[in-house]
């Protein structure tokens, strides 16, 4: 079932053109000229119920602008956007009941009151039935360890506690879709892991659709089944995560520890081998796995060395995304 349908969606911003020279500032007051910035340029995609989408792109690519249109706080310049059957901008009230939103950089909680009071206010605002409120509070209490800080005013919370509170509040009304903008930014590894496990669990149990923007590739690896990469307002890649890894991450490295130094390493110059790095008693062979099978490389190594240990290292998502960004920028 389609949860979000986007067709030829664009959003322009009108920027005042700076006039140069001595009288430039004065001239631009009386005779304004504008340039048009195409922040989102004719994008189309469909997101299904229960998907967790990593919405990626370099700084200024158009991620936040797209999310703001999905959330209903920015009106598109052209094109169509339907979220759970609703036009987000025209039916903002109805839309608000369907979505949860968390921006990592700023909180949506009331600064001076404890999280427990905020939750009661949300119950009232969203008209959350007693049963749903109780069930969700019980479920989120343990998963997010709310007990540590639920009665403390928000302004006294650490970043990790505040983020857990924000995520809890965004889900109390059982939204169909959760928008997360950099949910793990600035958090320590333990809290990051807690938040990722929580999102995964909610997605599994409630089939909540999740749209996630992040610059942390561990978020992508641990959560997302699909990634959409945007740059200069245009979708550059919309792919299943596994498929993306196969397409762009076709390199692996065989790392071998040897008993004696390897002398005859020229025997490893076979088609598909990209590089051979040699240290005393250590050898790292990088190869294209769609051209050569690691077993061939390993058997060649066995012929020329006494092996103590052998490992195959997969290329990390971080590196794959970096390769894709580099490829995108080299096409400009
Ligand atoms: N209100 C605005 N007025 C003018 N230009 C804007 C406005 N909002 C965004 N832009 C421009 O639109 C482009 C896309 O911005 P956007 O914030 O959507 O990028 P982003 O992918 O979210 O970047 P980041 O990862 O840095 O948050 C940028 O060039 C930005 O300067």
List keywords for this structure.
alpha/beta, Rossmann fold, Alpha-Beta Plaits, six-stranded mixed sheet, four-stranded antiparallel sheet, binds adenosine-5'-triphosphate, ATP hydrolysis activity, ATP binding, ABC_transporter-like_ATP-bd, Sugar ABC transporter ATP-binding protein, transport
What is the CATH architecture annotation of the largest domain? 3-Layer(aba) Sandwich
CATH superfamily of the largest domain: P-loop containing nucleotide triphosphate hydrolases
Residue stretches low in confidence (pLDDT < 50, at least 5 long) are none
What is the CATH domain class of the largest domain? Alpha Beta
Strand order of the largest sheet: 5-6-7-3-8-9
Structural class: alpha/beta
- Strand percentage, roughly? 25-35%
Order of helices and strands: EHEEHEHEHHHEHEHEEHEEEHEH
From the N-terminal CA to the C-terminal CA, the straight-line distance is: 36 Å
Report the total helices: 11
Total count of strands: 13
Mean pLDDT: 89
Tally of domains = 2
Estimated helix fraction? 25-40%
The largest sheet, given as strand count, sense and whether it forms a barrel, is: 6 strands, mixed
Question: Can you tell me the CATH topology of the largest domain?
Answer: Rossmann fold
Q: Per the principal axes of the C-alpha atoms, what is the gross shape?
A: globular
GO molecular function: ATP binding; ATP hydrolysis activity
Protein name: Sugar ABC transporter ATP-binding protein
InterPro entries: AAA+_ATPase (IPR003593), ABC_transporter-like_ATP-bd (IPR003439), ABC_transporter-like_CS (IPR017871), ABC_transporter_ATP-binding (IPR050763), P-loop_NTPase (IPR027417)
Organism: Paenibacillus beijingensis
């Amino acid at each position: 079932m389609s949860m979000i349908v986007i067709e030829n969606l664009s959003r322009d911003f009108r920027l005042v053109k700076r006039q140069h020279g001595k009288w430039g500032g004065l001239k631009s007051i009386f005779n304004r000229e504008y340039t048009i910035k195409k922040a989102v340029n004719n994008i189309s995609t469909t997101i299904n119920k229960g998907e967790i989408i990593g919405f990626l792109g370099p700084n200024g690519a158009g991620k936040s602008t797209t999310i703001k249109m999905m959330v209903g706080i920015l009106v598109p310049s052209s094109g169509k956007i339907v979220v759970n059957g609703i036009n987000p901008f025209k039916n903002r009230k109805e839309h608000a009941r369907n979505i949860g939103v968390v921006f990592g950089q700023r909180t949506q909680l009331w600064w001076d009151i404890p999280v427990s009071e905020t939750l009661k206010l949300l119950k009232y605002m969203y008209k959350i039935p007693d049963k749903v409120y109780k069930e969700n509070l019980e479920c989120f209490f343990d998963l997010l360890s709310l007990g540590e800080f639920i009665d403390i005013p928000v302004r006294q919370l650490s970043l990790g506690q505040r983020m857990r509170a924000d995520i809890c509040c965004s889900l109390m009304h059982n939204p169909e879709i959760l928008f997360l903008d950099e949910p793990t930014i600035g958090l320590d590894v333990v809290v990051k892991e807690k938040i990722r496990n929580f999102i995964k669990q909610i997605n599994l149990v409630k089939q909540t659709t999740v749209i996630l923007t992040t610059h942390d590739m561990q978020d992508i690896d641990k959560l997302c089944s699909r990634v959409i990469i945007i740059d200069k307002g245009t979708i550059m890649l919309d792919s299943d995560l596994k498929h993306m890894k196969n397409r762009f991450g076709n390199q692996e490295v065989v790392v071998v520890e040897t008993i004696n130094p390897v002398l005859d390493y020229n025997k490893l110059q076979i088609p598909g081998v990209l590089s051979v790095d040699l240290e005393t008693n250590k050898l790292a062979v990088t190869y294209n796995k769609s051209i050569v099978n690691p077993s061939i490389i390993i058997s060649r190594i066995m012929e020329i060395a006494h092996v103590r240990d052998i490992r195959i290292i997969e290329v990390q998502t971080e590196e794959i995304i970096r390769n894709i960004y580099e490829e995108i920028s080299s096409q400009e």
